[in-house]
Amino acid sequence: MRTLITIALLLLAGPANAIVGGKPAGGALASQAALIVSTRGASCTGVVLARDVLLTAAHCVQPAANYAVVVFEPAGPRLLQAARVVLHPRFDPGSFESSRPTPDLALVKLGEALPERFGPANLSADPTLPPQRAHFLIAGFGVTRDGDGKSAGTLRTVELPSIGTTGGIMVRLSNGEAAGGCTGDSGGPVLADGVVVGIIGWSTAAGGKRGCGGVTGATLVGPQRAWINATARAMGASVQ
Description:
Layout: H1 4-10, E1 23-24, E2 33-38, E3 43-50, E4 53-56, E5 67-73, E6 76-87, H2 95-98, E7 106-110, E8 135-140, E9 156-166, E10 170-173, E11 189-192, E12 195-203, E13 216-220, H3 225-234
Antiparallel strand pairs: 1-9, 2-3, 2-5, 3-4, 4-7, 5-6, 6-7, 8-9, 8-11, 9-10, 10-13, 11-12, 12-13
């Protein structure tokens, strides 16, 4: 089994990109997201709630494995191990097959704090559903092409409009072109005016086929703020 540090090094082995059709992120957003890796060989994105607490997608931290955040430093990648993971109590991993959405959210408590350059993101507390055609910015550390693991590892963004909502839990985003989330972007933020309104959960290729660049789905955080706040407090953090 590959170690976490090996996985982190592999992410640096090729061109560093992420998000299909996107561009590199900068400014405050770069300090509010982190790369999560696991001994399963998977990677995801997380949103910083506090320097030792991240919000991510529940499926990113399932099944059981060792999870860590990769911190990229001049001397090379450094790993901060996850000390505790809490899934949303209503998350059902079978919801992807049944197409019945459940809150795909989890909080991760780190064993040590992120460097001072990281800071908490602002989360939406609005429980209402976004209107169709409202525009959002998504961000993640995933691949730029489906199946190209070497294209992962750098935070990138792309702007997408809403094409609808599902079950009062998720928003669906697509511009009808080859743009959107892909492998490794799950857990990343969906933002409106700099505020995190959702967490990336899944993506499809055009026409609903398996892949990337078609539709990106995200769990809305506003309707889940009570659980997020209570779980963060139990981990010793407050949410902005």
